[in-house]
Batch of 2 targets.
Target 1
Amino acid sequence: MWMGRVVGRLWAARQAASLAGRKLLLVRPETASGAEGHRLIVAVDGLDAGPGDRVIVAHGSRVRDLTVGAEVADQDVVIGIVDGHELYPS
Amino acid sequence: MILGRVVGQVWATRRDARLGRAKLLVVRPTGIYEPAFDEIASGEIASGEIASGETAFGARHLVATDDLDAGIGDQVVVCLGAPARASAGGNDVPVDAAVMAVVDRAEIDLHALGAAGAGPGIRRKLTEAFG
Amino acid sequence: MIRGTVVGQVWATRKARGLEGRKLLVVAARDAEGRPTGRLVVAVDVLDAGVGEDVTVAFGSGARNVLRPGPENRDLLCDAAVAAIVEGAG
């Protein structure tokens, strides 16, 4: 999994039927030390994450099948909302 | 799988219920791994870009579930992809990375590494990591 | 599967269930033509491959099948296993 920050949300005028009712979040990967990734990921949210939340995103068709359902096109799914973390010098 | 070092921990009370109370550890991959896991975004993190410090993600750490009570500073072996579903005592846990071993000792034969075509940069990094 | 050369070993007393006592090898990956890719894989070994030997490594459900053939292997936390020791190619 990777951690990221919710920086926005997508609203769709038209979308695949299987995505209807699903919240799509824009997430910027962010390491525990705060370094930011270069690209945003569109992730399906099953936990009601909000803007500014740090989230844990898992990737894969199995994860998708288990959480939001096999009919959902997106394979990146929010599986946790971070309360806090500790990072030690490595 | 990949070899990595536990460099932190993440707490998340709001989580998919199937994760139960599994610990979530921040792991820094040691070395450069084959991203043969086409389902895995974590594979991008674990793969070659780590060496240059830049990834398509910009992330140098992955988050993995841990059932083996690994501690900060431990070296661990992390299972990636669909097989990671077998973590946290279940077999349908929606995660893509899980600690499958806590390392007592890791050894690389530098001669074999050189013979296998690894360049000096990689060998240097692995010598640092494997001691 | 990929090709590779065994370059090291990992010893671990604490392992996920079903994998106790299994050997873990570090393999330097090669492409199908045999050229090193510069990347590694840590794989479970049941064939007793030694350092310097050329092998193939199976991933995902294929890896689990190497450890325990059949459908009852989904509880194995293993994504890579040495599937063959290569004697020659071409």
Target 2
Amino acid sequence: MRKQILLLAALLAAPAWAQLPGLRARQPAPPAMVQNPLDLLRADFAVQSGGTTIYFTPGSVGLTQQARTILAAQAMWLRQHPEVAVRIEGRGDPTDTRDHALAMGAERSAQVRDYLVLLGIPSAQVTAMTWGKERPGPPSATTTLQELSGPALIPAAG
Amino acid sequence: MRAIQFAAVALGASPLGSPAAAQEPAVTVVALPPMTSPDSGTQGNESLGVAWEATQLIETDLRQTAELMPLSPNRKDYYSYPEVTAPTFSKWRDRGAKGLVTGFVQQRSDGRYTIGCYVYDTEKGRELGRIGFVAARNDLRRAAHKCSGLAYKALTGSPGMFDTRIAYVAETGPPSARVKRIAVMDSDGYDHGYMTAGDTTVLTPRLSPKGGRLAYVTFQGGTPQVRVVDLGSSQQRPLVPGNAMTFAPRYSPDGSQIVFSMMLGANSDIYVVGANGGMPRRLTTAPGIDTDASFSPDGRNIVFESDRSGSQQLYVMNTDGSQQRRITFSQAAYSAPEWSPDGNLIAFTWRFGDTRRIGVIGPDGTHEKQLTAGPADEGPSWAASSRELVFQRTDASGRPGIYRVSLDGSAPRKMTIPQDGSDPNWSGAMD
């Protein structure tokens, strides 16, 4: 049984609202008390890869250079942890119409997944889905670690 | 499908004749004397009570329309049974009424009622139509809606939308943890019920033309997928097998097919599949997002949105996917089209910047018109009359509600539902 663990999205500098002076200089909050090994992995993943959220320009599905930098770091981490599965959750633009937003979120998560696969991550280690505009927030795709599962999904070697 | 507890009965010999369509946009005044009864004594009083209830239901129905204006019935104006089929036309002409609706309620030995109603043109002094039912007491409301529908059709030429259903997504809870359930109600707000429990996010319910079945999108499997539910038996199944993301379903006009979108990789295309299953057939292959397909009422064409040009625009194609042609050319985005039941117009969501409005356009791309001012209106769905739409409007505090708007340019009216609502969809007339 796979249970999904939500990661706190680390703040990236991409969207305008995140560039406010007070926010930019702020360090990530220190990790809370960690008991679960997966929590440790989550925290490590977020720190090592520089973030779990990839932001997109409204109306666009293209990966920015900044996004590629983060994804390269994520891929590096994932290659070192072939036992961990990740799920990419794509989000559409909040002002889009319902179905187009669904498709945009799906395209964004697919772009992220495909780039990770291009960097050598086995496709079975990465799944992609979309929330459309069902989750509030800016257009983005969030990489979420999933609980260490049985051998079903994860290949033995990266 | 909800069991229909009343049976249509023949009234006299003549079937419903061809309606005399009043094409001028002016409001038609309709006389609506209290429905009467041939019953006598105590039974007669009971029947007159039922008849008065039916009269009020019809008045409410007709008053909701932009085309008909009923003269308020007065219960004290006793209307005799013989006058039902032999009205004094001059009396109603003198009061400015072009249309006249009469009717009766008669108790049967089995406890049910025979309900008959008749529609007349007072100027020509002739009958436009008649309809009759044997109905149980608790089906009186639907019988009255059928009478209203007959009057509307006879006097305007368009099918009525009184005996129809509206499906929508009921929304509760804070924005960060919204609970969404599929809700279905009669278009007058009665018989409101929930089809899903709220444990999974659900979207875009789409009723079959006669309102007996429903396709919707659920996140239950982790990714959005279309499910089909029979509203009578509550039996559900996935529209297509497999794990692919499917969304944006709509029934064909005869209910035999469902057109939908499927995501393969980073590409969304339009497919069609039998409403009872079968092998999906792919209709579009363009890169980018093709979605929100809707059949023309003759079943020969499909309108859809595509961002293949760089922004969302409307396209029309043959139902085999051939002859794809763009019909909107503007800097604004056009999305979520739905073809009107009479075939004359396509409703859409117009989007420019952060502003979303409801508009209509001819299938050839002419006669574009905006119906609402926004700023956050989306997802139009036609009434069976093709003269009115439901849509979703999100208010300044971010709460979505369901509104009706008429093609005549009058202001949208908010519908009364038990909680917030989104993604409304209006069925055709039920059997």
